[in-house]
Specification:
single chain, mainly alpha
Length: about 250
């Protein structure tokens, strides 16, 4: 595989062969493997660095409903739209019910960040903005099949969430179970979403070319997630914070 695609020489003559490649992509390229996550979950970051991660990740989390609304517009099939729209409700919430964005703001507030500043997204890294917007554009411009396939990182999310919950609660005295509620909720939401998306691509990717496009869409999405952590590492571990980006008060 290359940084862009599965490359040449991989035979995708069945849905099962495609799924095997998808799982290999997750095992080798999912952002759980990034050095920044190892620092985060191992208690090696200070509070300011954890704040920077939560602030930047908010932009991704708050954009997911926009991405999912974009995916819904790609389908004339009503039942696909019905299935997909609960993802928007999961993140946006509904009248009288808390969604994922509110739970993420509970995390940032618990870390001592100002909510108005978080929601303004004025302090996020340029790479965060570019990567997240590239994801929205991908779901708008590529085929509906590829748009759904790009969400398949959710296949690998539950293990990451479990590691994050246990690691952060163990190592940081400024973290408590209440502010980690976003991740505990995703332990049930992500498998449901991933199951639908995997079934969809296995059913609708009928040719080797379509199966290759599905795999490449997942590679693209792993790159979207990985580059955000590259930027965080460069800015807040190596100390190269871009002009105008969030500067932690806590050393």
């Amino acid at each position: 595989m290359t940084a862009l695609s599965i490359g040449k020489g991989i035979t995708l003559d069945s849905a099962e062969a495609m799924e095997s490649v998808l799982r290999t992509i997750g095992a080798t390229r999912y952002h759980s493997l990034h050095p920044f996550h190892r620092l985060l979950h191992g208690g090696k970051l200070n509070k300011g660095q954890v704040q920077a991660w939560a602030l930047n990740r908010y932009y991704y989390q708050s954009t997911i409903p926009l991405k999912d609304a974009m995916v819904m517009t790609r389908f004339r099939d009503r039942m696909t739209r019905v299935e997909w729209r609960h993802r928007i409700e999961d993140h946006d919430g509904d009248l009288g019910s808390e969604g994922g964005i509110e739970r993420w703001l509970k995390l940032t507030e618990g870390l001592g960040l100002d909510t108005a500043y978080i929601e303004s997204t004025e302090g996020i890294l340029p790479a965060t903005r570019f990567a997240v917007e590239a994801y929205v554009h991908f779901c708008r411009d590529r085929t509906p099949l590829e748009a759904i396939a790009s969400s398949l990182t959710e296949l690998f999310a539950p293990n990451l969430h479990e590691e994050r919950i246990s690691g952060m609660l163990k190592h940081y005295d400024f973290v408590n179970p209440d502010i980690m509620s976003y991740f505990s909720r995703r332990l049930t939401q992500a498998p449901r979403d991933a199951g639908f998306a995997l079934d969809y691509v296995k059913q609708h990717a009928r040719t080797p070319a379509e199966r290759e496009a599905v795999c490449n869409a997942l590679i693209f999405k792993t790159n979207v997630l990985w580059v955000q952590l590259d930027a965080l590492y460069h800015a807040y571990v190596e100390g190269q914070i871009p002009p105008g980006a969030f500067v932690p008060k806590t050393s």
